[in-house]
Amino acid sequence: NWTMEHYVEEVRRSLAARVEKNPVLLLISGGVDSTVAGALLLKTLDPDHVHLMYMDTGLMRKDETKTVKVALEKLGARHLHIIHCEDEFLAKLKGLEDPEAKRKAIGDLFITIQEREVARLGLPDSYFLAQGTLYTDLIESGKGVGKKAHLIKSHHNVGSPLVDAKRKAGRIIEPLDKLYKDEVRALGRLLVVDEEVVRRHPFPGPGLGVRILGEVTKEKCDILREADAIFISELKKRNLYDEIWQAFAVLLPIRSVGVAGDVRKYGWVLALRAITSADGMTADVYPFPTKDLLEISTLITNEVQDIGRVTYDISSKPPATIEWE
Ligand code: XMP
């Protein structure tokens, strides 16, 4: 009779045997997976040996850095390294419009900063690198066995020179790699990770970078963050959030004409996306009650002055992907 408690004990035993007294470094993205991985390490190892590194790329959701920091401190994190690198990411993305070029720029900069900051920590060579990789991540990035590997978009979460070197040295820890998303959430609840984090919808590694179509700027990040936060908080208020597998807003590279009072207004167009899914490999459009959609649209255009028009994306996966880029 397999339970999550057994899983935690198994991880504790296997980590004790492998890691011994060496430090473990976990790269935290702010999502459910890496935060639960962090909780699991803090629970099963001496917290003094656990280093958590989180990069605030400026492409995060509203209040994300604060939420993650609070959650991890509550879990007993003692070495939490938060790297503020918004300016570096915005500079790197300047002028880039092509989705794959943007993904590559973000992924490459992630790696550069990661190497620089990990070196700055000065951990002994014997340290272990932990990742919040799930079973489905391994399948989607082509490393899975048993299912046909798909690589539609470049994912930067699974591989990097640092990860490859550690893998070669046999010093990678992926304590969630046999779990699906719903099991990770169950584990998170058992480990008393903040409910805000545990129920959080998945968020792509490149963050808002792939939800602002075309060139990414600080101004657009701020507009999208506000609109997305309104959408998400309304879903929670209306008890729809947990029925939906993933919901978010996308800022289109289009402006359209509208009216504000009796003046003509030229505002950005926002798309809302909400889907149901088992694992993100396929997805259906969430059949929104019209009333909620209309009310949310009004709230967004009232509160975010730069947005003039809101649309709802009614495409399933396939043929569309969940993200727009
Ligand atoms: P797509 O857009 O490929 O997304 O249908 C499937 C799921 O993966 C997420 N996604 C990513 N996650 N790094 C990630 O960690 C990425 O580069 C990435 N791109 C997409 C997406 O949000 C959805 O949940």
Automatic annotation (TrEMBL):
Binding site for ATP: S29, G30, G31, V32, D33, S34, T35
Signal peptide bounds: none
Gene Ontology cellular component list: cytosol
Highest taxon, organism lineage: Bacteria
GO terms of molecular function: ATP binding; GMP synthase activity
Keyword Coiled coil attributed: no
Enzyme Commission number(s) from the entry: 6.3.5.2
The name this protein goes by in its record: GMP synthase (glutamine-hydrolyzing)
